[in-house]
């Protein structure tokens, strides 16, 4: 059983979240293989990663040498079979149960090491429902990153009833390699952050709809009174 640091990571999906995960891992010194469904999606994902690394270079967060080393650690494929040698794979495909189920089944067949961890970056689907479609439910765990991944330090780790203690330990170790702060969340809707955040945002909307407070006052109250960096209504506007 490989219990050391992750040196070979797979990322399935190179959209906003997948590209962010791949970038952070490559910048952390990990060999990253990224899988996408089509040549066009691969090209778009590669362009997204290059643009983000170039932004880091322009803002002096990366040196040219660091950018080039990160790029050299990234490879792309259209075949999930190329994940065979990975120690750890994170799927970051669309938030759709059927799509994620298909990907995890395929990864379960492709990844050769039975001790390899299969993580799902979901914000809403129960982890146990995804774990049981594989032949290694003890090695399946939720790993919920936040957008933008290169900036946000938090990652929620969501073990299901089937997840082994060793899988949770190894996933916490990878979070540390990526420079993230990990919290453990229950395998239920919303986990920790969204379970608290969504009712809070809805309450702010209802206050405006009822006429009990003005939007600017709600935001200013939470920013100045509760030290939130952004009020609830500004947060909603920023994510629309």
Terminal residue distance: 44 Å
Provide the succession of SSEs: EHEHHEEHEHEEHEHHH
Q: Which of globular, elongated, flat, extended, rod-shaped describes the shape?
A: globular
How helical, in percent, are the residues? 40-55%
Characterise the protein shown here.
The chain has 240 residues and is an alpha/beta fold. 46% of the residues lie in helices and 15% in strands. An 8-stranded mixed sheet has the order 3-2-1-4-5-6-7-8, with helices on both faces. The chain has helices at residues 16-27, 39-58, 64-72, 97-110, 127-131, 165-177, 193-210, 215-225, 232-239; strands spanning 8-12, 31-35, 74-77, 88-91, 117-120, 140-145, 154-158, 181-184. A hairpin with an 8-residue loop joins strand 6 (140-145) and strand 7. Helix 2 packs antiparallel against helix 3 (64-72). The chain is globular, with a radius of gyration of 19 Å.
Q: What secondary-structure arrangement, pairings included, does this model have?
A:
Blueprint lengths: L7 E5 L3 H12 L3 E5 L3 H20 L5 H9 L1 E4 L10 E4 L5 H14 L6 E4 L6 H5 L8 E6 L8 E5 L6 H13 L3 E4 L8 H18 L4 H11 L6 H8 L1
Parallel strand pairs: 1-2, 1-4, 2-3, 4-5, 5-6, 7-8
Antiparallel strand pairs: 6-7
Task: List the main descriptive attributes of the protein structure presented here.
240 residues, alpha/beta, 15% strand
Summary?
This protein is an alpha/beta fold and 240 residues long. The chain has nine helices and eight strands.
């Amino acid at each position: 059983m490989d219990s050391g640091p992750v040196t070979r990571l797979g990322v399935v999906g190179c959209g906003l979240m997948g590209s962010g995960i791949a970038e952070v891992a490559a910048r952390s010194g990990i060999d990253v293989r990224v899988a996408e469904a089509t040549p066009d999606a691969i090209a778009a994902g590669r362009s997204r990663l290059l643009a983000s690394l170039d932004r880091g270079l322009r803002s002096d967060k990366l040196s040219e040498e660091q950018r080039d080393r990160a790029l050299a650690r990234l490879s792309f494929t259209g075949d999930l079979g190329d994940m065979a040698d990975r120690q750890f794979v994170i799927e970051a495909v669309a938030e759709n149960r059927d799509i994620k189920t298909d990907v995890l089944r395929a990864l379960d067949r492709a990844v050769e090491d039975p001790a390899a961890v299969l993580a799902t970056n979901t914000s809403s689907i129960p982890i146990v429902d995804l774990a049981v479609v594989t032949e290694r439910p003890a090695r399946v765990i939720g790993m919920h990153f936040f957008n933008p991944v290169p900036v946000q330090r938090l990652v929620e780790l969501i073990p299901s009833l089937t997840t082994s203690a060793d899988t949770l330990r190894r996933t916490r170790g990878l979070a540390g390699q990526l420079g993230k702060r990990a919290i453990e969340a229950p395998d239920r809707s919303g986990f920790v952050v969204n379970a608290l955040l969504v009712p809070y945002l809805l309450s702010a909307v209802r206050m405006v709809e009822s006429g009990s407070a003005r939007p600017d006052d709600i935001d200013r109250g939470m920013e100045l009174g509760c030290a939130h960096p952004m009020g609830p209504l500004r947060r909603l506007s920023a994510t629309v």
